[in-house]
Design a protein that fits this description.
With 270 residues, the chain is mostly helical. The protein is built from 10 helices and no strands. The protein has one domain (4-9, 50-269): MetI-like (MetI-like fold, Orthogonal Bundle).
Length: 270
């Protein structure tokens, strides 16, 4: 229990994952069906989160939105992580002009504000889940790329790498057997923290109308639609907002906990 952030984050993420799994296969009511109860019905035994202005069950919509947000976050981080790691390792291999050029490309992407870059890409590609995945994945690329490049530059002069090279190991084998295992810790930490940011970015883009399109539910879009009716039905804002905060906080705490757990310097301080 020394690393409390790890355990709290693991608990919050486990609950979020369970909600996403349940929401993908079952909801108490059809999340798209209106008039499951009178509009603006407050939370009750049959509708724990109440109903919205169309009489749709808010709990069902929150559950149905969970797998959408998690799916977009996981896919975008996976795309950004794999692409960024490959580019980072390639820029480390290429020590000359090409290596510096790749490094500058990563820095150039990083210089754009993430949400502004996502807005630009989604505007060009058109709103929808696929565009959001590509946009969030793109601004994750430089973070993974810089970690992979720095780790490769740190390890390539180590004795065990030189020994492997002297025994005839090729670059690919050195990367797979020596560089990536040593870079796994920082990359896992970055991926976990990036999931929370990706989830928040998806909600922000959906809030702006560029993400998940109606009638499909999304936590960000639910907040956007409910703000007009906050005075009549505050539960339509409170519950999606609380679930979103729960999920993002869980991934952030898990990332912080893993950093303490996997970073030898931080572990020694504790």
């Amino acid at each position: 229990m020394r690393n409390l952030s790890l355990w709290i984050g693991l608990f919050l993420c486990s609950v979020t994952t369970a909600v996403a799994v349940v929401g993908g296969v079952w909801t108490p009511y059809d999340p798209l069906r209106p008039e499951t109860a009178p509009p603006y019905s407050p939370p009750s035994l049959y509708h724990p989160f109440g109903t919205d202005w169309f009489g749709r069950d808010v709990l069902s919509r929150v559950l149905a939105a969970a797998p959408v947000g998690i799916r977009i976050s996981v896919l975008s981080v996976l795309i950004g992580g794999l692409t960024g790691t490959a580019l980072g390792l390639l820029s480390g291999f290429q020590t000359g002009l090409w290596g510096e050029a790749l490094s500058r490309v990563l820095d150039g992407i990083l210089s754009f504000p993430p949400l502004l870059l996502a807005l630009l890409l989604v505007t060009v590609l058109g709103p929808g889940e696929r565009s959001v995945v590509l946009a969030i994945g793109l601004f994750n690329v430089p973070f993974f790329g810089r970690i992979a490049r720095a780790k490769f530059l740190e390890l390539r002069e180590r004795a065990f790498v030189e020994a492997a090279r002297s025994y005839g190991a090729g670059n690919l084998r050195i990367v797979l057997t020596h560089v990536l295992p040593n870079a796994a810790g920082p990359l896992i930490i970055q991926a976990t923290s990036a999931l929370g940011f990706a989830l928040l970015s998806e909600a922000a883009l959906s809030y702006l109308g560029l993400g998940t399109q109606p009638p499909n539910p999304s936590w960000g879009r639910m907040l956007k639609e409910a703000q007009t009716y906050f005075a009549q039905a505050p539960w339509t804002v409170i519950f999606p907002g609380l679930v979103l905060i729960w999920a993002v906080l869980g991934f952030n705490l898990l990332g912080d906990g893993l950093q303490v757990r996997l970073d030898p310097k931080l572990r020694r301080k504790r």
